[in-house]
Amino acid sequence: MAEAILRVEGVTKLFGGLAAVKDVSFSVEPGEIKAVIGPNGAGKTTLFDVLTGVQRATSGQVFLKGENVEGKRPDEITALGMVRTFQTVKLFEGMTVLENTMVGCHARSTAAFIRTGLSLPSARREETRILAEATEVLKTVGLETRSGELGTNLPYGQQRTLELGRALASRPGILLLDEPAAGLNPYETGELSQLLVRLREGGLTILVVEHDMGLVMDISDEIVVLDYGEVIAKGSPEQVQNDPRVIEAYLGIEA
Amino acid sequence: MGDGIEKHKGPANVHDYRTLLLVAIFVFTVPLWAHFIPGSVIHMDIVNLMVLSGIYACAVVGLNLLVGYAGQISLGHAAFFGIGAYSVAILCTNFAWFPTWLGIAIGASLAGIIGWLVGVPVLKLKGHYLAMATLGLGEIIFILFRELTGLTKGTVGITSIPPLSLFGLRFDSDFKLYFLVWGVVMLMMLIIINIIRSRVGRGLRALHSSEVAAEAMGVNTSKYKTKVFVLSAVFAGVGGGLFAMFQRYVNPESFHFTLSILFITMVVVGGMGNLWGGIVGAIVLTFLPSVITALPEWIPVFPSSLQNFGNYTLVLYGLLLIVFMIFLPQGVAYGLSRGASYASTGARRLRDIWNARKYEGD
Amino acid sequence: MITGLAVAAVIAASLIFKGSTGLQWILSGLTVGSIYALIAMGFSVIYASTRVINFAQGEFAMLGGMLIYTFSGRAHIPTALGFVLAVIIVTLLGAGFERVAIHPLRKSNVITMIIVTIGFSIFLRAVAKWVWGSDTVPVASFSGDKPIRIFGASLVPQSFWVFGFTALAVVLVFLFFNRTLLGKGMRAAAGNADAASLVGVNPSTTSLTAWTLAAALGAAAGIVIAPIKFVAIDVGVMLGLKGFSAAVLGGLGSAPGAVVGGLVLGILETMVAGVFPSGYKDAVAFLILILVLLVRPQGLLGKRESVKV
Fold first, then answer.
1. Cα→Cα distances C216→A220, C64, C83, C210, C230, Å
2. Does residue C193 have a pLDDT over 90?
3. Are the Cβ atoms of A106 and B219 closer than 8 angstroms?
4. For residue A227, what are the β-bridge partners?
């Protein structure tokens, strides 16, 4: 049995006296799509922030491919293979679709100020490679015809796709998606669904926070349900759908 | 295939190198045709002003990288300029044998080291907090220049700085310095072009746009901010060293807050985030006072009292800053490049129309 | 309030060990500090309402001083009338600039705003140079120059005018921002302009009011200070920088903070000048500025500003 790509153990995050995330534990197996759901304010984005180093956990550990990454900087965690997208699109302004994607390759390259400033051959070779990889990614997500446009000029749905592509360019071991379907119409959500399944078939592991239940139920292998920062249920889509605690959390009162 | 691929014709950025060559050709030929400009002989020594512009440009092109591309602020860059200048001045007047080029190198390195020391803590700040912190640091260094009289001779300043000598050549005239200074600027631009059109440049622009997203993509934002700050400090230090070689005299007043503001103004007026903004801004603002005095000669409408330099220039200068920010915040370089692209589109249109008419006749 | 104890300790130490010299330091420090406090208040008023830092604040004070010299010293207009006239002129300048430059640029980035206010300060200084020349001008004290002795230290009567005016200004500004609808609305607009406008607070009015107030405050401060501090066209620069440090020390956007920051800075600076070569005293303001920004950016009395992710 292959080791879990991501192991979250007892992660707690306190803001002052408020526990945004409380003793959350779960693991993500290679090649699986796991969804994290829960009512608004359940602590899902905070969880992602802790996993990717944007916030430090108050207590608990995070193991990425067996290595403890709690307390590391976000760019270090990306280099180790865990990459995320954001709830609100954070494309780089003033940069084209292609350039945005090429930034995704940053962690997979090393030429820094001196090598690029002097335009050394190794830096130039790396740049050619980055260009090729980014172009490949754009083909995968279907944006290569718009590569020269400013990222922020794209319609919203394609901006989301671009952000996903940018994350893919870093060849993550596990991809963390924060509400990737937010603001998408049903057609776009369907396309996203198909893309994610295709990516999983290619061997990518995905952890996704989502509100769109149709998407979640369609593609997830397993679901973790958070409420008030705590895990209240874990299981297959069918199991979770019928779990009374989950129903209570979403509807507020016992049905 | 989208046209974004064409823009990246591999790592060698031909388009920018070509522009650099054109700029270099333009700049290096100035001494030949400068005195044909009317009024220039009386009101402005163009070669002299161009040398000064080039010296300032050294500081400003690095600052443009820091401010325009990486999105940081520094209101204290005169300090690095001054460190470069004082290093050469102190070393070469106290030790007559000390090679001037080494003095400049040491000054630039010292500026870089101090840039690193102050940059690491200060660059954690953002926006006007960063602006004020760099302002405070610049002022502290200015006060040190003024008070460490044993070393710097305080407000009296250091005089009789020997001229730059390199490979046996003494650069003791404006004309000789001209080519050296602008050669240095072109070299700096080459480095900057290489950086901007690379992974590092993208990383800087990314962190300017969104630090959080840049970090998520693997950019070590604090390291990059520090490195670009140090680079701009080193370039400013080189400029300062050349300044000492040009003026042959330094005193603390030259490196006050006012100079830092001048640098920032050059960046902004030239065009923040425009590759050539630094050079354009440095030239425009260095020439501005002289241009104002020369105006009555070119355009009879302006009263000749404009030639009474001191009084009106500063008023106009302040007004210009305000007006500029309101009407052309992207800077002169942007205005120039828009003008150039309109011109080339216009030329193409005319050619198309002309060709179409030719065929109609058949 | 560790800082409060530290300040009290420093004051106590200087009194005990230096006796009347120490007292002189403190009294002079309080006088200078009140000057900084008044300038700091001008910064805070604009910042509290619009999050803009006005680099020309020092110039408002400079102009106040120069104008009172012309009105009372040269044109022999009675001081009170001259005061009012000078304040009105500077206020019009400030309000005019706000409409012409600040308002159109309200959505711009930090650097643009900084440059535009710097441009304004250069412009004001240049106009002043044109009108008054570069020399220092004398301004008569309001109630004579006979120093008042206190336990071996002395203060000129004008200092009391400064103290009094500072106290009055703090009270008025505090009341305005905390007890009047307009003032409270302005503070709300600074935090969240969209939400504030939803409840009827007009950000444009907020900005104009803030600049008008700050200009009036700055000019009045300059007039009261003028007999003590040598007035020349370039005093505004240092006053502005130090006033800003004081504002940050006390908490940008807080009127009581401006006073606390100003007084503390004034005392520290005077003491440093007493012990070290006097040229270094200018560095005190900047060292404090940097330390505060790095260690406690909200200042002594300010609240942490939350950063939106």
1. 65, 9, 11, 10, 20
2. no
3. yes
4. A230
Cβ pair C52, C102 in contact under 8 A: yes
Tell me the domain boundaries of chain C: 32-295
Distances (CA, A) of B192 to A214, B69, B229, C111: 50, 11, 13, 22
User: Considering the domain boundaries, does residue A88 fall inside one?
Assistant: no
pTM of the model as a whole: 0.89
- The tokens for C216 are 């009036």
Closest partner residue to C286 (CB to CB) among B127, B139, B312 is: B139
- C120 inside 8 A of chain B by CB: yes
Nearest chain A Cα distance for residue B231, angstroms = 9
CB contact (8 A) between residue B136 and residue C126: no
In-domain check, residue A37: yes
Quote the pLDDT of residue B174. Answer: 84
Question: What does the pLDDT average to over B58-86?
Answer: 95
Q: Is B300 exposed, middle or buried (0-12, 13-18, 19+ CB in 10 A)?
A: exposed
Topology of the domain covering B44-330: ABC transporter involved in vitamin B12 uptake, BtuC (1.10.3470)
Asked if B10 lies within 8 A of A128 by C-beta distance, the reply is: yes
Structure tokens that stand for C97 in this block: 């600039």
Q: Which residues does chain B have within 8 Å of residue C241's beta carbon, measured at their own beta carbons?
A: 135, 139, 257
Q: Is residue A38 part of a domain?
A: yes
Q: What is the pLDDT of residues B129-183, one digit of tens each?
A: 898 899 999 999 999 999 998 888 888 888 888 888 888 788 888 888 999 999 9
The topology under which CATH files domain C32-295 is ABC transporter involved in vitamin B12 uptake, BtuC (1.10.3470)
pLDDT tens profile B48-58: 899 999 999 99
**pLDDT tens across A197-219, in order?**
999 999 999 999 998 888 998 89
